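step: validate -> pass
step: tokenize input -> pass
step: predict -> running
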Amino acid sequence: MLSKEFSVSYNVYMKAKLFEVKETKTKGKGLFAKEFIPKGTITWFKCSNCKVYTKSDILKLKKKDKEFVYWHAFRIKSGEYILPCDEASYTNHSCNANILDSGRGFDIVIRDIKKGEEVTYDYRAFYDIDMKCFCNEDNCCKKVKSIHPIPRELKKYWERKIVPSLKSIKDVDQPLNKLLSDLKKIPS
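step: predict -> pass
step: emit ->
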């Protein structure tokens, strides 16, 4: 159990109400679409409610809280760890993910997601990842490893999926619209 002061400061709520956490068949918990989510939907960005930790911040935490941050947060280029204020940390990896980092400060749906479908993300965008891949996709990398800068072929692969999705942003009802004032890099 997390310490009381940590639990209170980590106020979990689902901002977009698009997903629910459920058990997967083989990967523990995962995020699943509660409804149809069209390509071009912005699903996550670092808002003012997300927690940001430096390495020294984490070292000051109690053991269980440290473990929680290391398990649920992701490390970015600056070396900081971002702990999402929603259930985004339950998004599992796939080499053929349906959500990717847009490179503009938010994550975007890159292909339509059906109701009940698992929501996935390509972890190779993160830092400090080194794990076996269990996605079993045709393009499976077998080992998820953070390499930065991102290899050119992988970056091109992602861009082929992201660019068309960015063009759909204005045509899609954005469930995070009320919170998008925190984000300054929405493409026009």
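step: describe -> Residues 124 and 146 are 5 Å apart (CA to CA).
step: cleanup -> pass
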